[in-house]
Structure formats: structure tokens, C-alpha cells
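Anyone up for a design puzzle?
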């Protein structure tokens, strides 16, 4: 992490890498015209007025990169815990037998879990495809991260032996989203929140077939995944809300609001899903030092109450105004592109990735964060 941070802090290294390694072939990661400065993504005409402002193009590029990353991680979840290939939705198959104990453990959280995972995956893939196609339609460069698909994924039966962008096997899952949305305080006003469960350097998917064999072990892996689902989609909800405040085009605002709304829909499902892992009949469950407790065993602590699945009204805009239920955070400091990259990196999601990958994300984040509505 220190090595990665050091490399990312050197703008000369980043720009040299970008000029030498990324703008090549038919699908450039970042347009050559934006490489001169990562902070020039303001509301100016892009490509001599052919379509998007530079700021809007930068915002959509960063969102496309984020969706490619989401698509990659969700695809790994879907291969092992989504709908069994050829299977109808679970509700149409009353005698359904899970394809493995991981899928079965996810179904212990919600019998429709495999359907939800597959649906979430399809949504994220559609977001990435749409954003890149829209960029091309406006004469802007799409985002292509294929050269960074180098990580080894799960070796369990069902997982494809292909290169991955993300690593789901060494996660530090931030579960503070769970307590944040049950609190009356707001991170944008400086509030901090406890972890619902402390998850450090753990796998959210079975690594090999051996992981399928121990019931408590595989249930804990599924519970880790459930909290990771919520963490990812909470971050996406805040990111789109933050970016919507920066766009200069009404059509681009339609895009960020439309896709952002879908991210919120995902998040609300995973709030409920994760909460099911911390109440009977699943909880308490322990494996290798990690316990998912029965959070109903501590009455009087609403920040940990599993069935509070909707955002609790909290401080918003000003402490002098009534509390309001909202997406939070919404500011660049906590929800913008740089904050998103920092959070994903700190979570271990990119364990094993190259310096070039981190340089790419930082430049895309810098350009998007520098965008302005005016």
C-alpha cells in the first residue's frame, strides 16, 4: 500500500505511464487531449464542441471505470452464488437444490439471493456498456481496463479461470454504512460511525472447493459477501449523487440520476440482506475468529438494529433545519472520485494490482473531481 501510494503521488510518473502505456489501439482509456493536466476537466467544449464538455466527459469516464470494476467483482459473485446456469428464478423452483454450499448460505440470508446477485451483476454490466457507448456517441474516448485483468480469482468449481480486475479474497470490509444509515448524524457534517462487524483480510467467496465443506466457515464467507454488497452499493449511491452536482449537461444529469437511482435500489436490498446475517436463524455464527452476532440481542441500540432497513432521518445541509432521510455522504470529500478510489483501495479489493492500474484510477479520479458545473 505504501509503495502504491508513493507511486500515485508522483504526477510525472503517472503522466509518463499514461502517455506510454494507455493511449493505444482502438479503445483508449483516457483521451490524449486530457493528458496534459489532470485538473483541466472543467466545463469547456470537448472535441471542439462535438458533444460533451470536458468536465462531463471526465465524470462519465470515471463512472465507466467504476462500473467496469463493479461488473468484475459482481461477476465473480454471480459465478459462485448467483443463479445456477440454466436455472429459473428461485421463486419459480420450490424444490431447488443449491449448486454449492456458498449459494445455499446466501439463500439462508434470503431465498431469492441468487436471483438478486445475478440481477445486480446484469445491471452493473449494462451501466458500463451504456456509459462507454454514450461516450463514443459523443466523440469521446471510452474506458478500457482489459490490460489490467491479471488477478487470479477463485479456484472453486463454478468460477471461471480468467484474469480479474478485483480481488475478493483479502477484503477489509467497511461495515460502517450499516450503522451510518441508522444514525441521526451525517458524515458530511463530520460524524463518524462504528463498524457493525469488524472484517479484516477475509475472503468473500470460496477460494477452493475445500471452503464448501464446513457449514460455519461457508456461512461466514457468505455473510462477509453480504456486507461487502452493501458497502459497494452504498458507495455507488453516494458517488452518483456527488457527481450529479457537477455535471453541466441536462442529458448527462439524466444519466447520472438514472443510473444512480438504480444503485440506490441495489443498496436497499443489500441493507436487508446483510441484516439477515446478524439475526436468527443465521446468527450468531463464528469462524476463525470472526463472529457475526445476533444484533437483536442488544436492544436500545438502533444503529445496530437489523430491521431498520430505510435511511433514518439525519442532519442535512444545516443543523438548524429539520432532520431529513437522505443518501449520505454527498460531498466530494467523502463521496467523490478520490474518496471512492481511496475507499476501494483500502478495502483490499485491488490487492495484487499493478502500479499502472492505480495510476490510471487516480488520473481518472483527478479529472472527474476537477469537473465543474460552471
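Challenge accepted. My sequence:
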Amino acid at each position: 500500500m505504501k509503495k502504491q501510494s508513493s507511486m500515485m503521488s508522483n504526477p510525472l510518473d503517472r503522466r509518463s505511464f499514461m502517455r506510454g502505456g494507455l493511449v493505444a489501439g482502438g479503445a483508449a482509456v483516457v483521451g490524449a487531449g486530457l493528458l496534459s493536466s489532470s485538473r483541466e476537466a472543467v466545463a469547456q467544449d470537448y472535441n471542439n464542441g462535438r458533444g460533451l464538455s470536458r468536465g462531463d466527459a471526465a465524470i462519465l469516464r470515471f463512472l465507466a471505470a467504476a462500473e467496469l470494476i463493479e461488473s468484475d467483482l459482481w461477476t465473480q459473485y454471480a459465478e459462485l452464488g448467483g443463479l445456477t446456469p440454466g436455472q429459473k428464478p428461485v421463486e419459480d423452483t420450490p424444490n431447488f437444490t443449491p449448486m454449492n454450499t456458498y449459494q445455499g448460505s446466501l439463500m439462508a440470508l434470503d431465498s431469492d439471493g441468487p436471483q438478486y446477485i445475478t440481477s445486480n451483476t446484469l445491471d452493473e454490466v449494462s451501466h458500463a456498456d451504456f456509459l462507454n457507448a454514450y461516450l463514443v456517441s459523443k466523440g469521446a474516448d471510452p474506458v478500457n481496463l482489459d490490460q489490467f485483468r491479471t488477478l487470479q480469482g477463485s479456484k472453486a468449481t463454478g468460477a471461471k479461470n480468467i484474469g480479474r480486475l478485483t480481488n475478493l479474497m483479502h477484503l477489509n470490509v467497511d461495515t460502517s454504512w450499516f450503522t451510518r444509515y441508522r444514525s441521526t448524524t451525517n458524515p458530511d457534517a463530520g460524524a463518524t460511525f462504528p463498524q457493525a462487524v469488524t472484517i479484516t483480510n477475509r475472503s468473500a467467496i470460496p477460494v477452493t472447493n475445500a471452503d464448501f465443506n464446513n457449514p460455519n466457515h461457508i456461512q461466514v464467507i457468505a455473510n462477509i459477501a453480504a456486507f461487502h454488497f452493501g458497502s459497494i452499493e452504498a458507495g455507488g449511491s453516494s458517488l452518483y449523487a456527488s457527481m450529479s452536482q457537477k455535471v453541466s449537461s441536462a442529458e448527462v444529469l439524466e444519466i447520472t440520476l438514472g443510473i444512480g437511482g438504480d444503485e440506490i435500489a441495489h443498496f436497499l436490498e443489500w441493507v436487508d440482506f446483510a441484516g439477515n446475517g446478524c439475526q436468527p436463524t443465521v446468527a450468531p455464527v463464528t469462524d476463525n475468529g470472526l463472529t457475526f452476532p445476533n444484533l437483536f440481542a442488544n436492544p436500545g441500540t438502533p444503529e445496530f438494529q437489523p430491521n431498520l432497513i430505510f435511511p433514518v432521518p439525519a442532519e442535512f445541509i444545516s443543523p438548524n433545519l429539520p432532520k431529513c432521510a437522505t443518501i449520505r455522504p454527498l460531498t466530494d470529500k467523502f463521496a467523490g472520485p478520490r474518496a471512492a478510489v481511496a475507499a476501494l483501495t483500502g478495502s483490499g479489493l485491488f490487492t495484487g494490482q499493478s502500479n499502472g492500474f492505480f495510476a490510471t484510477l487516480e488520473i481518472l479520479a483527478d479529472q472527474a473531481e476537477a469537473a465543474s458545473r460552471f
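A detail worth pointing out: The chain has eleven helices and four strands.
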